[in-house]
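Tip: read the tokens left to right.
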């Protein structure tokens, strides 16, 4: 007997406290309920997990969820348990006694959901026991990890293709937040989902305001400013190196911010403790390499700052996407420069991979910089990159707020390219600019005799430096690392020729003096982000204080008890009885039974 979507909606309402499905949730769930496999690409915060959780609860048998990270599993299992759902996880961090108890519950048919890692799942003893267990479905979370074209390739994920043979009658649901068309094809092929329907939601994240700034000085100083303007809010700062995270975290702490570093070089326990502290805090900043992120489902992250840029538009969207998962306003701010681009390209070059894979990655890096440097709405550029059509400008990114004026710099570009050509790629950027200005100290006779020497006195040194960066971004120039004293050479030969011939124009952003592009400062509290009337803020804070205590007592993150959004609704509605409280979004039956009285007591006890 197949459960209906109406029954699924009833579970959504009673267990999770939400009134109706969002976006493509209903369609994906219908597919799973009918016992068919599917591939679902839903944006971060789009409610992917309910797509497999609800069918697991409604279909007979156990719902198996394959997840790449322990942190992700821990969070989801804790949240499910809070809602009264029978869920557990089996991973390397689980003690033998608990493991035995979990298996007992699996065999007794008591569990609705079991979370496992890919390597754990494919281990022979686990597989043997699971093959004797009736399964409702198999969900493969973060499915882009299976693809080399994705940005988080995990070789372990490749083995999951065998699930098709091992469990031919069990529907498999692959879900991810980021996958371009090529990655989606790869997921289908690798996971043997050729016949599965594909559900791809819009990549729009209207709650996210995006900003990108070219670095104009030390990134650290700028990050300190940006964080200071966002005091009292949770944020993530991404840095490109382990050292970088340590240095930035230290500088932030000295400025009085509750900041920690997080990277793969730290001891496992240190990492786990820092993650837990971050999840449980309402105003902490995590300074991390990309080792931190996937599966960090903290819903109230209000900003993500890239002190160093990400490696692709997918990575950008995924990392920035960790802000505002609760749907409330959040910001993504990216700092970038030409040396970051050169570094990214060098790193790809030094990796041991097929040339074809390297080429794809180089292209991805270039597409990212084209977006950062571009004069098009950032959100729209990203969505078009993912293949969306008919995309409108977002109206809130830096480009939408103050469209950059561009000017034609083709002639100047010709001079710069020609100078690089004549100097034979033997000099760095500073020397190149001096040459164009004719300011080189003690030039050799050779250099002073070149026709390009002093040819650029009509532009300032800063304008030349910006133009050289721009040409690097566009691939017309290329940087050779030369042991950290980078030399500049000609880039893409075809493109350079087109510029010489005037067939390709080079446009640069007009730098209006004193009007640097900067992310706006923000000093709003989280309550005003939620547009809460001042009269209700006191109660909202009282509810948060109650939640903080309750979370500390149970040792869980506050948001698995209630989201800010739910507390804000309670503060406004001031329910006097269980029934009214249960009508609020995010208050399901389990939570009502568990916390109803305590919450009503806070509401009653609040004067004014
Ligand atoms: P993601 O797709 O990023 O994994 P989650 O599954 O964690 O997203 O869901 C993000 C948030 O949205 C969660 O807090 C969840 O409770 C909420 N949510 C999911 N579905 C709905 C819905 N239909 N109505 C209201 N809130 C929802
Ligand atoms: Zn925009």
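Filled-in amino acids:
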């Amino acid at each position: 007997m197949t459960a209906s979507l109406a029954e699924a909606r009833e579970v959504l309402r009673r267990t999770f406290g939400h009134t109706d499905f969002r976006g493509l949730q209903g369609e994906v769930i219908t597919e799973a309920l009918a016992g068919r496999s599917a591939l679902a690409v839903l944006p971060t915060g789009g409610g992917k997990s309910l797509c497999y959780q609800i069918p697991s609860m409604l279909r007979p048998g156990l719902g198996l969820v394959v997840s790449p990270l322990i942190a992700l599993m821990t969070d989801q299992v804790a949240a499910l348990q809070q809602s009264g759902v029978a869920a557990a996880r089996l991973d390397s961090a689980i003690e033998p006694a608990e493991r035995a108890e979990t298996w007992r519950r699996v065999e007794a048919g008591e569990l609705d959901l079991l979370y496992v890692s890919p390597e754990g799942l494919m281990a022979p003893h686990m597989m043997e026991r699971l093959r004797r267990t009736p399964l409702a479905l198999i969900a493969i979370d973060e499915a882009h990890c299976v693809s080399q074209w994705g940005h988080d390739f995990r070789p372990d994920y490749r083995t999951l293709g065998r699930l098709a043979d091992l469990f031919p009658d069990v529907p498999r649901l692959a879900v991810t937040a980021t996958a371009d068309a090529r990655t989606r094809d790869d997921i289908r092929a690798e996971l043997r989902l050729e016949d599965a329907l594909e559900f791809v939601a819009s990549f729009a994240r209207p709650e996210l305001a995006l900003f990108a700034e070219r670095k104009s000085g030390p990134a650290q100083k700028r990050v300190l400013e940006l964080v200071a303007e966002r005091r009292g809010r949770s944020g993530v700062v991404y840095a490109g190196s382990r050292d970088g995270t340590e240095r930035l975290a230290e500088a932030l702490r000295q400025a009085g911010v509750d900041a920690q570093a997080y990277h793969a070089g730290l001891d496992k326990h240190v990492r786990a403790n820092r993650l837990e502290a971050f999840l449980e805090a309402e105003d902490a900043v995590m300074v991390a390499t990309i080792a931190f992120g996937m599966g960090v489902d903290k819903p109230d992250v209000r900003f993500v700052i890239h002190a160093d840029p990400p490696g692709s538009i997918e990575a950008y969207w995924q990392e920035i996407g960790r802000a505002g998962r609760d749907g409330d306003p959040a910001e993504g701010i990216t700092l970038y420069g030409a040396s970051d681009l050169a570094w990214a390209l060098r790193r790809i070059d030094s990796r041991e991979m097929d040339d074809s894979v390297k080429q794809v990655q180089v292209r991805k890096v270039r597409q990212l910089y084209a977006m950062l440097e571009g004069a098009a709405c950032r959100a729209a550029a990203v969505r078009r990159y993912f293949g969306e059509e008919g995309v409108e400008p977002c109206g809130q990114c830096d480009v939408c707020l103050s469209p950059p004026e561009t000017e034609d710099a083709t002639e100047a570009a010709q001079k710069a390219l020609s100078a690089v050509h004549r100097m034979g790629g033997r000099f760095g950027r500073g020397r190149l600019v001096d040459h164009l200005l004719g300011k080189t100290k003690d030039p050799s006779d050779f250099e002073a005799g070149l026709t390009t020497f002093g040819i650029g006195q009509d532009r300032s040194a800063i304008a030349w430096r910006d133009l050289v960066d721009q040409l690097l971004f566009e691939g017309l120039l290329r940087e050779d690392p030369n042991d950290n004293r980078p030399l500049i050479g000609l880039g893409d030969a075809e493109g350079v020729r087109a510029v010489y011939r005037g067939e390709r124009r080079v446009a640069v952003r007009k730098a209006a003096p004193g009007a640097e592009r900067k992310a706006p400062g923000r000093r709003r509290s989280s309550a005003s982000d939620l547009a809460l009337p001042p009269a209700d803020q006191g109660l909202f804070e009282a509810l948060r204080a109650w939640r903080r205590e309750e979370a500390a007592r149970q040792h869980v993150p506050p948001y698995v008890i209630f989201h800010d959004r739910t507390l804000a609704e309670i503060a406004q509605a001031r329910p006097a009885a269980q029934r009214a409280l249960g009508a609020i979004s995010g208050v399901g039956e389990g939570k009502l039974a568990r916390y109803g009285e305590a919450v009503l007591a806070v509401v009653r006890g609040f004067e004014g």
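Residues 534-554 form the longest helix (21 residues). Residues 18, 21-22, 25, 42, 44-50, 297, 299, 325, 563 surround adenosine-5'-diphosphate (ligand 1) (CB under 6 Å).
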